[in-house]
Known about the structure:
mainly alpha, 85% helix, 0% strand
Amino acid sequence: MSGFSALLARDLRLALRQSGDIAIVLAFFALAAMLFPFGVGPEPELLSRISAGVLWVTALLAALLSLERLFESDYQDGSLEALALMPTPLEFQVLAKCLAHWLTTGLPLTVVAPLLALALHFDPAGYPGLVAALFLGTPVLTLLGAVGAALCLGARRGGSLLALLILPLYIPVLVFGVGASEAAAMGYAARPELLLLAAMSLAALALAPWAAASALRQALE
């Protein structure tokens, strides 16, 4: 656990030093979401109807934007080889890096989403459901993205390949995340969708670090 904590603190420090990357992700999220009123029109009823989908799709793309750097910098400067020699299992190191990524990407997206929801005329009654869905769903985006980032490590045009590889896997999270948000906004029970998101988070937490670690070992050979 000491190695896990040390790696988590290291990645958080690096992320805060390169705070421009976090700002770019949040700026992309905000700008992409705010393009929709210009594209589909400013009618409140129309925006309210599509707002949950808009917020989820733009949050998904914003999270994807930062995934390529998850292992790339450590791979390029040789740190990844040193990390693989540490006593801490590589799976726990992957988990630490995923947690740092979620704390600097997924959590800020979850916090900013209600502000953008206001501009998109999302029903205020659905804010708790929207935040809960993003809180449960964004870890899945990070964990699945870590597997894709490890598989694409060192590949040419890795960012494009990562998007093609991971986006189909994000569809269930998108479906249930939008479903929970819309159900909460319409006054229905969002619990079934939230429980499914929680189950997907637990499944990804159990499986993704081992899959990503295996891909990293393959890349280092």
